Amino acid sequence: DGAVGCIGEHIDTSILTTLNLVSMGIKKVIAKARGLEHGEILAKLGAEVVYPEKDMAERLANRLIASQVIDVIQLSEKINISKVMLPDRLEGKTVVDINMRKKFIIAIENNGEVMQVVNPEYVFRNGDILYLSGSSEGLNKFGEWIG
Question: Cβ-count burial of 131 within 10 angstroms (0-12 exposed, 13-18 middle, 19+ buried)?
C-alpha cells in the first residue's frame, strides 16, 4: 500500500527509485528530499515529500531562540505545540493572573505528573513544564513576553 524512500545521498538514485515506486502503482510513496528542487521533482513524480533535515533545523532554531523552549511540534502551517519550562517570573502566579489558559495552555507537567485539565486557579510552581498550543506567531509573541 505504501513505500518510503529515504535515499538522500544520491539525488539521481532517489529520483529513479521514486519513479519506479510510483510506476509500480504503489498508492502512497513518501520520499525524502535534500532540497527544494529535489523535492519539486519528487512531488511531480507523485510522491509525498518530506524534508527531515529542514524540519530538524527549524526545531533546533526554535530551541536556540527561546531558552525556555524544550521542544516544538508543528502540527500544520497554522498551529504548533510547544513544550516550555516555566519562566521564573511566572512562579507563584495563577493561570488566571497571566491570562493564558484560553490562548495557549493545554497541559502542565510537574515531577512527571501531567495535568490535562488546567484549573484557572492553578498556582505555577518551580519545575512546571507548560504545553502550549497556538500559531507560530502567537507562540513567538509569548516567547518574547516571557523572555
Answer: buried
